[in-house]
Amino acid sequence: QVQLVESGGGLVQAGGSLRLSCAASGNTNSINTIGWYRQAPGKQRELVTDISSGGSTNSADSVKGRFTISRDNAKNTVYLQMNSLKPEDTAVYYCHAETITTQGMGARWADYWGQGTQVTVSS
Length: 123
Known about the structure:
It is a single chain. The protein is mainly beta. The protein has no helices and eleven strands.
């Protein structure tokens, strides 16, 4: 079991920056990938960026060059540094973790979500 709590959302002007944090707790060593999704009103939830246990990252084309994901394993925290924010970045941002656990002879994958944090970019 993994619990995810986001923080750092808020209101910023276009062109500004914001850093989101996602604090993970529970069985954090089971996390295979962790990252960020977002959902704007009337739109589907979409992947923003994530990072694997091996350190590889994946990002949406719309945020490449502007958003950077990083994590501090000692603090069990993942960050999303958001620069050059645009009004279209306005959304609820969700931390997401994919985990794999072993039990007996089997293995199980699971998905966990944070509660979301609102990011609003004004212009």
